[in-house]
Write a structure and sequence with these properties.
The protein is of the alpha+beta class. It is built from five helices and 21 strands. Among the domains are: 100 residues, conserved putative lor/sdh protein from methanococcus maripaludis s2 fold; 53 residues, Beta Barrel (OB fold (Dihydrolipoamide Acetyltransferase, E2P)), CATH 2.40.50.100; 75 residues, Helix Hairpins (Orthogonal Bundle), CATH 1.10.287.470. The N and C termini lie far apart (90 Å). It comes from Rhizobium metallidurans.
Length: 407
């Protein structure tokens, strides 16, 4: 009995020692895990330090490119196409011959008209002589009727000469129209007719089309809700593009900004009854022919400037109420979410005038891994010309570090 008690006591004693050792081993591990968790909560984020300044107020309008001039080429005389002198899709200059229509019948018509003139002119001297003779004899051997008849014959002979000259001019015009020329400099489309095809004067089907695309027109559309504001800005001269200055910048279909700036050319004063929009036409230089008719583009229009803080669009979002929202670093190093009721577009940013002060740090990267109230470790960043967030270059310390060595 005593032996059994001793065995049980020994087992309990050993179990207590093992439990104590296990507890002592777990306590430091738990403490280490808590410290590691605290370090993981301080997420690394990129920030930019905001400073109040004057920024442009802009609006972005959708639009479509159109040619500056477009001409459908049609024949003005009938005949067979003898020659096509242009390269389809190539450039043509004003006055270049595009099509040559068979001109033999028109050359014959010109020759015939010249012969008719010669015949008409040959009868004029005889009529003139007869008129002069009766003019001298009127009242002394010649009757008034004979004089009037001679006068009429002279006038008819002269009229026949003028008529023949007019017929010659018409024949020469038709002959010139056998050469179909380019009306202006531009790009020519493919031809709808080939050599040997018969064409008719003023036919409905065009032979080809010539488009002038330098400069190019951009037709922008805007909703009627902004009509009064835009027209007032134009009338007040707040749009810097009026009067020859550049105010429009263009974003192409590939998302890149076009290198040239545009000027306001025309603004319609009538709102479409079907779409509720109005049209603004802008002219852009297009020397490299980057803008092609039919392209869909977006134009940025500067309406003026305002003092405030520019929040890059890549660092903002909209909440369920449609309010602009952004994440900031608070004074105690935690994530602070702010919303703004009023924000105006300013190029690739939102211009905010309230709720921000100089020196506030806006979080621009690492937004996916943070939530409001989370501790963060900010790193100063900047947004380059391409809209990419990159670290701010650290100050050049190499020179300072080498100065002691030089001494």
């Amino acid at each position: 009995m005593i032996r059994r008690f001793l065995l049980v006591s020994s087992a309990l004693a050993i179990g207590g020692v093992l439990a104590a050792c296990s507890d002592s081993g777990k306590t430091p591990a738990a403490g280490g895990a808590g410290a590691a968790g605290a370090q993981q909560q301080a997420a690394a984020v990129g920030v930019i330090t905001l400073k109040k300044g004057d920024f442009p107020i802009t609006t972005i309008l959708p639009g479509r490119a159109e040619a500056f001039q477009t001409a459908d080429i049609r024949p003005q005389v009938s005949g067979i196409i003898r020659e096509i002198t242009f390269r389809e899709g190539g450039e043509v200059k004003k006055g270049d011959v595009l099509y040559q229509i068979e001109d033999a019948p028109y050359l014959a018509a010109v020759a015939q008209a010249r012969a008719t003139i010669a015949k008409a002119e040959a009868s004029v001297p005889s009529a003139q002589s007869n008129f002069d003779r009766y003019q001298r004899l009127v009242g002394s051997g010649a009757t008034q009727i004979e004089f009037e008849t001679a006068k009429t014959n002279l006038l008819q002979a002269q009229a026949e000469v003028e008529s023949a000259k007019a017929a010659l001019a018409a024949a020469e015009i038709d002959l010139n129209h056998t050469k179909i020329i380019a009306p202006f400099d531009g790009i020519i489309d493919q031809t709808a007719y080939n050599v040997g095809n018969v064409v008719a004067a003023n036919q409905t089907t065009a032979l080809t089309t010539v488009r002038q695309i330098d400069p190019a027109y951009i037709l922008l559309t805007e909703s009627s809700t902004n009509l009064l504001r835009l027209r007032s800005a134009i009338a007040a001269g707040e749009i810097k593009g009026t009067g020859g200055n550049d105010a429009f910048r263009l974003i192409l279909e590939n998302g890149k900004e076009y290198g040239e700036k545009g000027t306001l050319d025309m603004s319609k004063s009538v709102v479409s009854e079907t779409t509720g929009t109005f049209t603004i036409r802008v002219r852009f230089p297009n020397p490299d022919r980057i803008i092609l008719p039919g392209m869909y583009v977006r134009a940025t229009l500067e309406l003026g400037s305002e003092s405030g803080f520019a929040l890059p669009q890549l660092a903002t979002s909209r909440n369920a109420n449609g309010e602009l929202s952004a994440q900031f670093v608070s004074a105690d190093g935690k994530v602070e979410n702010r919303t703004f009721e009023n924000a105006s577009p300013s190029n690739n940013a939102w211009l905010v005038t309230e709720g921000i002060k100089d020196g506030d740090q806006l979080i621009v990267s690492g937004l996916q891994s943070i939530t409001a109230g989370m501790p963060v470790k900010p790193t100063e960043m900047k947004i380059n010309d391409k809209g990419i967030v990159v670290p701010v270059a650290p100050p050049a310390a190499g020179g300072d570090a080498q100065q002691p060595a030089a001494k």
